[in-house]
Amino acid sequence: xxxxxxxxxxxxxxxxxxxxxxxxxxxxxxxxxxxxxxxxxxxxxxxxxxxxxxxxxxxxxxxxxxxxxxxxxxxxxxxxxxxxxxxxxxxxxxxxxxxxxxxxxxxxxxxxxxxxxxxxxxxxxxxxxxxxxxxxxxxxxxxxxxxxxxxxxxxxxxxxxxxxxxxxxxxxxxxxxxxxxxxxxxxxxxxxxxxxxxxxxxxxxxxxxxxxxxxxxxxxxxxxxxxxxxxxxxxxxxxxx
Length: 241
Ligand code: TMP
Description:
By secondary structure, this protein is α+β, with helices and mostly antiparallel strands. It is 30% helix and 32% strand. It has 2 domains: 3-84, 2-Layer Sandwich (Phosphorylase Kinase, domain 1), CATH 3.30.200; 87-222, D-amino Acid Aminotransferase, Chain A, domain 1. Strands 1-2-3-7-6 form a 5-stranded antiparallel beta sheet, with helices on one face.
């Protein structure tokens, strides 16, 4: 089926979600479009959609084997992933292993400072508000997730970190921090969205060179090359993790 022949359910900054003939499923289509600073900055990262789709698929498969329920159902093409249809919880869950980005700004600690025990942060997924940070009381007040759901999300986010950090370390990549989104399907929760250089900070383990979207956010150059490097390290020459 041609991409434009099916019903578009949602278009975000980096992905389009399409309906399918199979109830309870959707297709995530990964674009090359990149935005930063709540879409104040816009650009294109050639080949990003393919990298993010393939890398997310590999990491979701790995997480599934480790017992983390994800929305991933299969890879349809270079840019298309078949997913369980989720009702996305409007919380961005961030896990941090090393100080960077907004945590460096908030605390005054130098970027690159190690964090002994991984940190979990919650942000309100709201473009008009610019994704402000929330605590658990705010989440309860806003009714975004019930306390047991939030507890599960925190636990699962740390479990994802415990699986992905060594997996990426074996490939010479330091998992500095990452963002997760969760959603509901029926009475169950699943990990959704994507896990890619758009949503993770990944540094070369030896040189600490940034190999993620910070190259785009901060105009560091070599953006496409960094995405391709991560792709090669995660998927290997065979294209399979
Ligand atoms: P931060 O340091 O800017 O708070 O970002 C923490 C992590 O979350 C980093 O890996 C990038 C990712 N992230 C997103 O995926 N989407 C966003 O909108 C932002 C601000 C960060």
